[in-house]
Amino acid sequence: MVRPRYVVAEAWSIAKSSPRQTLAAVTLIALALYVPGLLALLAKNLGRVAGSRAGDPAAVVVTLQPQADARVLAERLAQDPRVRTVRIVGSEAALERFRRAYPDLGAALAELQEAPFPPALEVMLRPGAAPAAATEIAGAARLWPGVESVEAAEEFSRRFRDAVSLVRNAGLFLGGILTLAAVLSVASAVRLALDLHRDEVGIMRLMGATEGAIRAPFWLYATAEGLLGGSIALGLLYATFRLATAWLARDPHPVLSVLWVGFLSVPAALLLPAVGAGAGLAGSLLSLGNRNTRRVTRIA
Predict the structure, then answer these.
(1) Which of 65-74, 231-240, 241-250 comes out lowest in average pLDDT?
(2) In terms of pTM, does the model score above 0.90?
(3) Helices (H), the chain
(4) Which tens digits make up the pLDDT trace of 63-118?
(5) Is 13 exposed, middle or buried (0-12, 13-18, 19+ CB in 10 A)?
(6) Is the dihedral of CA 249, 250, 255, 256 positive or negative?
(7) 76, 145 contact by CB (below 8 A)
């Protein structure tokens, strides 16, 4: 049986023997996990916006220009037999709704001098309306004077889901590439450490040491590298979140604030150190094949 104290002491000795390679591997792992973690944080907050709209019954949202007569346009929309109700949402009402949906931003939005949301009309359709009714009404309303923009709820939701999915997939893609680079970096660091300790490995083999006794310190060394890199990535991500929220508290912005409402959940946050430890272990397994240990034995 390999003693834990021996494994920890040898792993620490390996780390001290190649400090530059250890620092480079830890830094690369931290950057490799920070970038996808940042994109995951943005996707999470964007997804919260999509979820907040899930219960909104409006089928069409008509954004008006400041000089438009909201009541006249609402009556024009209500003349369509497919329309059940038209609700006028002023700038103040839209701001109050936003505050209720995002109470965490109350302090930041309290300093706004004026409501940043333009007036809008929310159109609810009758239960028997055709599926294409919202799109047809939106297309017709876009041509009216005083209308800034028109969005059908289905079209908006689809675009929003596509945007959130794009951010999430970009994070996964970059995370996969950077994690692979981190694994290779750890493998290189372990290979160099193995070469620096070739005399010690050779003596242990001559004395009948098992493969586990020889490789366990290198496994622990690489796993600790990954765990440290993942923890640093988590710390950097949280520091970025705190800096962003502090900056937005001083200079509120109704759009950018949505991206920094909340931090990652505890399981998602702990996933960064776990993935880092897994990447480090994978790098050590890649480097410590039978072929490499036998080469070290012959050199010794």
Answers:
(1) 241-250
(2) no
(3) 4-17, 19-52, 70-78, 91-101, 106-109, 133-141, 153-196, 198-206, 211-250, 266-287, 290-299
(4) 898 888 989 999 999 999 998 889 888 877 777 766 666 665 555 555 555 556 78
(5) middle
(6) negative
(7) no
